[in-house]
Amino acid sequence: MAEVKRSQRSVPSAGGIDRQLVEAIKTAIKLGYHHLDGAEVYNTEPELGTAIKESKVPREELYVVTKVITQIHDIPNAIDTSLKKLQLDYVDLYLIHAPFFAASESDLQSAWTAMEEVKASGKAKSIGVSNYLVPHLTATMKTATVTPSINQIEYHPYLQHGGPSGPLLKYMKEHNIASSAYGPLTAATKAKPGPCDTLYADLANKYYVSEGEIALRWCLDQDVVAITTSGKEERLSDYLRALTFKLTPKEVEQIAEAGERKHFRGFWQGKFDANDRS
Q1: 42 is an active site residue
Q2: Catalytic residue among 33, 35, 94, 97
């Protein structure tokens, strides 16, 4: 899955469209990345929509995701605004970007009811959440008539949420909520140096791939959808190699065990205590 974010070097033109980003998305689509992950807060929906239109790829062959957070208290207007920017009639998946807007369980439940209405309207084929922990999911499920299809979370060896047997992933599995990982490359990039470095390097040599591809494969071998971001065609092409091999169960376990020796949260740090691994 390709995440659609703006590069720090990428600047919108006078017309408001960032052509560099549009071309990067078109490149990703050309390479075979048809699962495109956006969000209203990224401010890239116009570029994503333009790239989809210019790619000439049939709409039904693409899986388009966007998220709501800045307009969380007006979800009907939020989805209409996103669809207008995307130049689409519907998205394949619509997510609540984070639960931190909620001051109570009822806030979470009201937002989810609005999401269910979006799905019923046909403006989203599927609905889900992001950054939800067990308390958020539990509160939502108390009144839900539609189970969230997926929970998109930061997930990598240095933030495993207790792993497959931990409370979060276990709850999701029990309720048929799929898991999706953003930041899966963290241990191989911005969290270096760390206890996974040598293991990643050894496995990259073994499988003739990059350390980033090992990081992606570690997620995939746990049935976790991995989301990655890059504006470079060569790197996007390389990441597709993660689909051509598998780690052994022992190697998956070794990476997990090494990762437990370090804690690193790359996103939403202000919402958690420094040592909170939930």
Answers
A1: yes
A2: 97
Residues 6+ apart with CB under 8 A from 227: 1, 2, 3, 37, 152, 180, 181, 182, 184
Q: 0.85 exceeded by the pTM?
A: yes
Which of 34, 42, 171, 263 is catalytic? The answer is 42
Q: Is 2 helix (H, G, I), strand (E, B) or coil?
A: strand
The two three-digit tokens of residue 124, written as one number:
């989203």
Confirm if 57 and 34 have CB atoms less than 8 A apart.
yes
Cis peptide before 193 (omega within 30 of 0): yes
From CA 211, how far away is CA 261, in angstroms rounded? 19
**Active site annotation includes 33:** no
Residue partners of 111: CB distance under 8 A and separation at least 6: 72, 75, 96, 101, 102
**What H or E segment, with its residue span, contains residue 181?**
strand 178-182
Q: What digits encode the pLDDT tens for the residues 22-52?
A: 999 999 999 988 999 999 999 999 999 999 9
Q: Which residues lie below 8 Å from residue 246, measured CB to CB, with a gap of 6+?
A: 217, 221
